[in-house]
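This is your field. Have a critical look at the following sequence-structure pair:

***
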Amino acid sequence: MKKYLLIIVSGALTALSIMFTPLSFLAWFSLVPFVYYIIKDTESRANPFKVYLLGLVWSMSFYICIYHFFLYMYPMEFLGANPVEAVWLVALFWFGLSTLQGVVTALVPVVFRLCARHKVLYAPLFACIWIIFEWLQTQTWMGVPWARLAISQAELPVFIQSASLLGSLLISFLIALINALLATAFIAFRKDGLKAVGLRVCALTAAALFVTNLLFGAITLALKNDDEDRKVTVILVQGNILSSEKWSADSPSPLDLYIDLSREALDEAGGRADIILWPETVINYYLLGSSHARSEISALAEESGAIVFAGTFDRLTDESGEKHEYNAVIAFYPDGSIEEEPYYKRRLVPFGEYLPMAQLIETLFPALMEMNLFGSDITPGEDSRIAVSDHGKIDRLICFDSLYEELTRQSVRDGAEIMMLSTNDSWFIDSAAVYLHNKHAILRSVENNRWMLRAANTGVSTIISSEGRVVEKLEPLVRGYVVGEACFSSDNSLYTYVGDMIVPACALFIAAEICLRIKEEIKRRRLEKRSLD
């Protein structure tokens, strides 16, 4: 009982370190009980089911804490759900997503149990396995990289600068490795006390890794310089239209609201700006199909001298006559022109913008068929669609895109010199999810050495520097705007060139351990056979 209680506490504390920045320090040791019992079960040759149960208890306690923000979706008025349906749907999403991710993450100790060979390699082996599972969360619709270990450090710039080397997975690797080293040190202490060599070696190695990462961050921040000649004035508009209001006929005209707020911000900026960014789908109809909307936004662009980026929907018909709907950001230029190829959201939200396994879902959970707010599946975009301005090239992301680091990296590889993110987090009011999502944007900035402009419908809206500092911020549930400065840059980070090379490196380490274990097993069996002969 004590064992599983400690495992639950470990999972909950790790989740808290990710959700709340003042508790971020917990991430560096909150995994210790989990790793400790993984190692103990491995050394005692516990059966795989027992090891899997250990992982499942940790994973469920972790994800249930992380995804508690689904509670903020109640009473789901925007879906027209009654109170009973709303409770059922909230519970399904909260526990369903927790279980979906938990049953996979629970395999971490099982893989460790099957691969572990030398005690001296326990810590790096655990860290490598952890990274493989974090990376796997980006590969299918079932995996959502919402709560990686690196997120816990996102609002502490000095701890995340190494993400510019090998991405945020390197930060997760360091956290997992230090936790595993501390667990190994504790095992040595339990066995031989303070005189244990393993205690000193593991503890000193963990301290050295922590200090090295800290020093690298401090030196990087001290040497960092942005190109002042490429500084621009930007405006981020936050209309604060709640989900329950967005689709209501009684809600204020989003076009009028955003035009008015943009002009107020322009007055504060001295009448001119370079970029005006609106959030995701603030124009909740096909903007390009409305001559009135096009003329109003074009007029704003002309009078401000800014490129106005508006979140909306778009519709195209392919060669076969099939219609496709897109979640889009469309650029309106100061010369009155409108871009011909808008940016289309590349990573869609399951159950919100499309229904995965629709036939199965309709059979088992017919109520979920109502979760697709747009009546039909949104079509994902296929490329970065870089926007060109007089100041440089502009990357665009929409909401869920920012969780997947490869999308931002690809945009920067395509030439983007500044990043923009239009998002709608109104579903989660002012819960921890709102801030978690912003933390992903911070990591994307550091990974690729780019400033990030983030406009959210109900907040938070932020200007994030290339070193991950939030230089301007508008809190959730506030109607207003952010006026500030940001810089274009063409200096790429190492990560932009090499990407997630840490993943194949970790996979290679694990494969080497498996091969050596198989080799030893073959050798053992041969010796047993000879002894019998």
About this structure: The longest strand covers residues 307-317. The longest helix spans residues 502-532. DSSP finds 18 helices and twelve strands in the chain.
